[in-house]
Design a protein that fits this description.
mainly alpha; Growth Hormone, Chain: A; 18 helices; 83% helix
C-alpha cells in the first residue's frame, strides 16, 4: 500500500472510495442471503409437495448444515488469516465466494427432482451454498474492523453499511411475496436469477473499490488450537458471542413465521400485498434505526441503548401476541407494532455488532496480538448456529400445529399452475378454501412460536450481556490509546 493510501485509511480516516464501495457492496450480498434464509424453506413448503417426513428431513438437513457452517466459520477465519494472496487479505475470498454462491442460488431455486431425490439433491446443494457463502461472509465482515479502529469511524461504517444491508433485505423481503402466490414455481426461478446477478455485481464493486489496510501479524500462522485459545482467553468475546446468538434466535423467528402468519390470518390471495406493507415497516424501522444509530451512540451509552431497546421490544411482542385476541385486528395497528419491533431490534443489533468488534481491540490490548478475521467469525457463527436452531423450532411448530399439512395442499396447486393445468385464479381461490378450515388453536400455536419464544430469548440475551460485558466507551478509548502508544 502506498503512503498516501495509508494516510487516507488511518485510524481516524477512511478514503471515500473504500467507504462507499464497502458499504454499498452489502446490498447485493444481503439480498442474496435474505432470499435463501427467508424464502428457501417457504419455496419448498409451498411448491414441492413433500410428505411430512420429507419436510422434516429437509428441516433437519438445513439445521445440520447450518451447524456445520457455524463450525466452518472460524475455520474459514483461520484460512483467511493465514493466506497471503496477491490481491489482498479479504478481497479475493469475497469475490470467489460470491461467484460460487450465486451459481448455487440459481440451482437451489431451479432444479426440481421429486420426493426423496429432491431431499438428497437439496442436502448436497444447501451444504455447498452454506460453505461458499461463508467464504464471502467471513472475509466481508472480517474486513470491517480492519478498515479503522477509530470508534466514530467504525460506528459510521456500521451505520452506513447497515443501511445498504437494509436496502438489499427489503428488496427481497418486500417484493418476493407480491409476485409468488399463484405462480410460485416460475416466479422463484426468475427472482433467484436476478438476485444472483445482483450479488455478483455488488461484490465486484467491493473487490474493485476497496483499498485494504495493512495490519500487523501478517506473518503469523494460526492453527485450530490457536483459534480456540484466542476465543477462550477473550472473556469479553464470550458473553458478546452468546448474547448475539440469543439475539438472532429471538429476532429471526418473527421473520421465519411471518409468511405463514399472514397466509393463515388473512388468506393466501391477500397475504402477498399485506406482507409487502409489513415489510415496508421492516425496511423503515430497520433503516431508521440504522440512520440514527451513530447520533444515538454519541448521546447514550451502549448499555442504555440496550436497556431502552429491550423494553420496547418486549412491549411490541406483547402487543403482537394479543393482536386479534385482546386488541383489535387492525392492519394499521399491526404495521405500527411491526415498525416498533423492527426499529428497536435494529438498534439492538448494531449495538451488539459494535460490541463484538470492540473485543478485537480488547484482545490486542491484553495479549499484543490482533486477529480481525478470527474474532469476526463469532458474529457469523452466532447467526448460523441460531438459524439452525430456528429451523428446528419452525419445522416443529408447523408440523405440530397442522399448518404444514394445509400448506402441502397449496403446494400441489402451485405445481399444477407451473404445469399449466390450472390458472392462478383457480389456485388462489382453492387455497383460500383450504385456509378457511384452519382452527383458532392452530393459529395460536403459530403465534406462540412467532412471538412468545422470541421474547423470552431476547430477554436472556440482554441479561447475559448486561451482567458479563464490561467494555464501555471509556474503556474502549483507553485501550485504543494504549495500543497506538505501543505502536
Amino acid at each position: 500500500m502506498s503512503k498516501t493510501a495509508q494516510q487516507k485509511t488511518g485510524n481516524a480516516g477512511l478514503d471515500k472510495r473504500t467507504k462507499w464501495s464497502y458499504c454499498i457492496g452489502a446490498t447485493g450480498r444481503d439480498a442474496a442471503y435474505a432470499l435463501v434464509s427467508m424464502y428457501l424453506i417457504t419455496y419448498i413448503q409451498y411448491t414441492m409437495n413433500l410428505s411430512a417426513a420429507q419436510f422434516a428431513t429437509i428441516s433437519a438437513i438445513m439445521a445440520g448444515c447450518l451447524v456445520w457452517d457455524a463450525i466452518n466459520d472460524p475455520l474459514m477465519g483461520i484460512i483467511i488469516e493465514n493466506a497471503h494472496l496477491k490481491h489482498g487479505k479479504y478481497r479475493p475470498w469475497i469475490l470467489l465466494g460470491a461467484v460460487l454462491n450465486a451459481a448455487l442460488i440459481v440451482v437451489l431455486f431451479t432444479v426440481r427432482p421429486q420426493g426423496w431425490s429432491f431431499v438428497l439433491f437439496f442436502g448436497i446443494s444447501y451444504l455447498l451454498w452454506g460453505m461458499t457463502f461463508t467464504m464471502n461472509d467471513i472475509s466481508y465482515w472480517g474486513m470491517l474492523p480492519s478498515l479503522s479502529s477509530d470508534a466514530s469511524t467504525r460506528n459510521m461504517l456500521v451505520t452506513l453499511m447497515s443501511i445498504f444491508v437494509c436496502f438489499g433485505q427489503f428488496a427481497v423481503a418486500g417484493i418476493v411475496p407480491t409476485v409468488i402466490a399463484g405462480n410460485a414455481v416460475n416466479a422463484y426461478r426468475v427472482v433467484a436469477l436476478v438476485v444472483a446477478l445482483a450479488f455478483l455485481g455488488f461484490q465486484l464493486l467491493v473487490y474493485l473499490g476497496v483499498t485494504e489496510r495493512e495490519r500487523k501479524n501478517t506473518d503469523v500462522k494460526l492453527s485450530l488450537k490457536d483459534m480456540l485459545k484466542i476465543f477462550m482467553r477473550n472473556d469479553q468475546l464470550i458473553p458478546a458471542g452468546i448474547g448475539y446468538f440469543l439475539f438472532n434466535i429471538g429476532s429471526n423467528l418473527l421473520i421465519i413465521f411471518g409468511y405463514n402468519f399472514f397466509n393463515f390470518e388473512f388468506g393466501y390471495s391477500d397475504a402477498g400485498n399485506l406482507i409487502f406493507i409489513f415489510t415496508v415497516m421492516f425496511g423503515l424501522g430497520t433503516l431508521f434505526s440504522q440512520a440514527i444509530f451513530a447520533a444515538v451512540s454519541k448521546k447514550l451509552s451502549r448499555r442504555k441503548i440496550l436497556t431502552y431497546s429491550i423494553i420496547m421490544i418486549c412491549v411490541g411482542y406483547l402487543l403482537l401476541l394479543g393482536y386479534g385476541y385482546v386488541i383489535p385486528k387492525n392492519i394499521i395497528l399491526l404495521n405500527a407494532i411491526g415498525f416498533l419491533i423492527f426499529f428497536c431490534q435494529g438498534i439492538f443489533n448494531m449495538t451488539m455488532i459494535v460490541m463484538i468488534n470492540n473485543t478485537i481491540e480488547y484482545d490486542e490490548y491484553k495479549f499484543h496480538e490482533r486477529h480481525d478475521s478470527v474474532i469476526s467469525t463469532v458474529r457469523s457463527f452466532a447467526v448460523k448456529f441460531a438459524s439452525a436452531l430456528n429451523q428446528g423450532i419452525s419445522a416443529l411448530v408447523l408440523i405440530i400445529s397442522g399448518i404444514y399439512s394445509i400448506s402441502r395442499q397449496i403446494s400441489e396447486l402451485e405445481i399444477n399452475v407451473g404445469k399449466g393445468e390450472m390458472t392462478s385464479e383457480q389456485a388462489l381461490a382453492t387455497a383460500n378454501g383450504y385456509i378457511s378450515g384452519v382452527t383458532d388453536t392452530q393459529t395460536f400455536i403459530l403465534r406462540l412460536g412467532m412471538v412468545f419464544i422470541p421474547m423470552l430469548v431476547l430477554l436472556g440475551c440482554y441479561l447475559i450481556v448486561r451482567r458479563k460485558y464490561r467494555i464501555d466507551e471509556q474503556m474502549y478509548a483507553d485501550m485504543v490509546a494504549e495500543i497506538e502508544a505501543r505502536q
